[in-house]
Amino acid sequence: MNVPGSRRRLGVLVAATAAAALGFIAHYEVLSYWFTGPDTLTLIETSRITDRPSAVDTLTAPLMHGTNFVRLTGLFYRPIASLSYAIDYAIWGLDPFGYHLTDLLAHATAAALVVALLAEQLGIAQEDRSNRARTSGLVTAALAGGLFAIHPLTAEVVPVPARRHDVLATLFILAALWALARGLRIARPGPKLGAFGLSALAYTLALGSKEIGALLAPLALTWVALDTYGHSGRLRETVRRTVLAGIGYGALSIGYLALRFSLLGGIGGYVGPFGGVKDTPIPVIVSQYFLSLFYSVDVFNLGPGVTYVPATIYVVLAVWIGLFAVGIVGAGGFRSFFCGKVGRLAIFYSVWLVLPVPLIVRVGEYSPWTGYIALVPVAALTVLVLTIAGRGLYRALAELARTSGSDETRNQNVGMVRAGSSAGGSLVVFVLAVLLVVSLVAVSPLAQPYDGWSHASDVTREALTEAEPQADDLPSNAVLKVEGLPNVATLGPPTEKARVKSLRYFWAHTVRSWVRLRNPGSRLSTFTYGRTVPVGEEPVAVQTCVERRPNAPAVVRFRYESEASNRSTGT
Predict the structure, then answer these.
(1) At residue 570, does pLDDT exceed 60?
(2) What is the per-residue pLDDT for 506?
(3) Pick from 449, 466, 486: which residue ends a domain?
(4) Which residue, 251, 276, 301, sits at the end of a domain?
(5) What region does 171 belong to: left with phi over 0, alpha with psi -120 to 50, or beta?
(6) Eight-state DSSP code of residue 51
(7) 55: closest CA among 88, 91, 79?
(8) In the predicted model, is pLDDT for residue 333 greater than 70?
(9) Residue 438 and residue 293 share a domain
(10) Are 456 and 408 in a shared domain?
(11) Which domain covers residue 466, as residue numbers?
(12) Whole-angstrom distance between the N-terminal and C-terminal Cα of the chain?
């Protein structure tokens, strides 16, 4: 008996809601944080809309226009991300709760869209699908959405409003792919055109959120080709549809580039002494990328075996590709694998996993939060490996049981050897995939505190709220020299303890933006002087002193003393 369409849609809705709730629960602590990330306050300051000119600037000016970021670091056009800060400021003002709520809701929505996309690609809502296939597909989609929601790398992104660009771009890419997959299944011209239009709109929003949104175009073409050929088996029809899709997404891409050129005076990107292309070796970048996705914490205490060296990633990839091949054979062979839905999904998400690598290599260094977009294929591929290996194991065990009951000794022996080999390979893949899932869940924000951002929040709040009243006494156009900025060494290979790898506190422009936001008439400017100061992971008391000097810029100095030492000395 077929399940009614309303019940099928309800099942997808429940699974998507569960994934969203899991993402929300894993990160709900961020709602108590102050402003985190050194660029957050500057993004708010430069994106807020107070009149018509500022509204035009928010939608047309470079990211963080009017600051040294444009001249010394990078030239980017991200109007959708900027608009999100403007909306937050209009609703919440300088209450950090609202900004963190937006980030949390965006991440939860992305998790729900992972479920929706996989459900659409697996055809759960199709009437010709058996109840068993629908249930299996729904479980696959739900597990992928849940794994995406709590992946350890989300601790680098969700707590920081300045990093929502990656979340928004990923969210809109998921929405665009969902609409595209749905449009390919709809027969009626009107709804079909509406779905494609929604996909185009979501693509436009992804491009306006962050440059990595451009990955949607090759992803869309890949899925159109795989889906069309998988259903029709006709090469000509596949080429025709793929070319038509390429024309549509290509036109949007060209329009975006033309607008970007006209507003930025060029393609933009990282520039200047702080944003220029770095020179990290490519093998190290690739190692950092894949380890952050699959093994961000050294849960198995491998030690030097997971340093950022070429051998690490090459060995790991070779092993996983081999195990994946064994799982395919266990599922019934390569031909049946690639002709089925699971095979097409495996190809699609493998392409997705690899696509960001050239862009990251082009920058010359890997920042963990840029890996957020790759969490979708990581979650999908991990669950697909579980599915493939599980099915192969079940099929092999059934064959083993059937063969053992055969009366023909020779056929029985051959069949048992074949079934036993298939079962063994599938079991190895299944166990390793389970270990991967368990290791990711064990070090996820759902199970570990990742309290680095809480510490950064406390330090930043105390420093800036103490500095702002003292800076009020300075002339409105004063120049302030900032000394004693905090730092913490976090980037590095996987460690035994789960911790944030890209922790940041505040910089000189953070001080400037906070003072300007609190005092709209202020035109304060700042610059950094001297070395940064290690803060450590323990609670500290921040001491702030603003010194006015004749014929020289005023100075603000920050000092950090351990609260434990203060208690022991009675200070």
Answers:
(1) no
(2) 96
(3) 449
(4) 276
(5) alpha
(6) S
(7) 79
(8) no
(9) yes
(10) no
(11) 452-569
(12) 75
Residue length of the chain: 571
- Percentage with pLDDT > 70 across the chain: 84
Taking CA atoms, 127 is separated from 5, 6, 13, in Å, by: 8, 11, 17
Residue keyed to tokens 């009675």:
570
pLDDT at 355 over 70: yes
| Per-residue model confidence (pLDDT) at position 417 | 46
Query: How confident is the model at residue 323, as a pLDDT?
Result: 60
Which residue, among 146, 144, 563, 571, has the nearest Cα to 386 in the 3D structure? 144
479 has which bridge partners? 525
Residues 203 and 228 in one domain: yes
Residue with tokens 């198995």: 300
Closest CA to 379 of 443, 318, 447, 436: 436
208 and 332 inside one domain: no
The closest of 185, 164, 266 to 228, measured between CA atoms, is 185
pLDDT digits (tens, 9 = 90+) for 474-494: 898 999 999 999 998 676 778
**Judgement on whether residues 11 and 111 belong to the same structural domain of the protein:** yes
Side chain identity at residue 265, one-letter code: G
Interatomic CA distance for residues 504 and 460, integer angstroms = 10
Query: How many structural domains does the chain have?
Result: 3
The full DSSP string for 486-524 is EE----SS-BSS---SS-----HHHHHHHHHHH-TT---
Q: Are 152 and 443 in contact (CB under 8 A)?
A: yes
For residues 320-344, average pLDDT: 64
The two beta strands, 486-487 and 269-270, are unpaired
Provide the mean pLDDT of the chain.
87
Q: How confident is the model at residue 567 (pLDDT cuts 50, 70, 90)?
A: very low
CB 26 within 8 A of CB 68: no
- How is residue 557 annotated by DSSP? E
Task: Verify that 415 and 484 share a domain, yes or no.
Answer: no
Q: Could you give the CA distance from residue 58 to residue 50 in angstroms, rounded to a whole number? A: 10
Q: Which of 76, 246, 241, 262 is nearest to 169 (CA)?
A: 76
**Residue 571 burial (CB count, 10 A):** 8
Joined tokens for residue 219: 């992803």
Assign 70 to helix, strand or coil: helix
DSSP 28: G
Report the alpha-carbon distance of residue 492 to residue 367 in Å, rounded.
11
pLDDT at 569 over 50: no
The overall pTM is greater than 0.90: yes
For residue 404, what pLDDT is reported? Answer: 62
Spell out the residues 6+ positions from residue 363 whose beta carbon is closer than 8 angstroms to its own: 270, 277, 278
Where do we find the tokens 């729900």?
Answer: 112
Tell whether 262 and 344 lie within a shared domain. Answer: no
Same domain, 204 and 86: yes
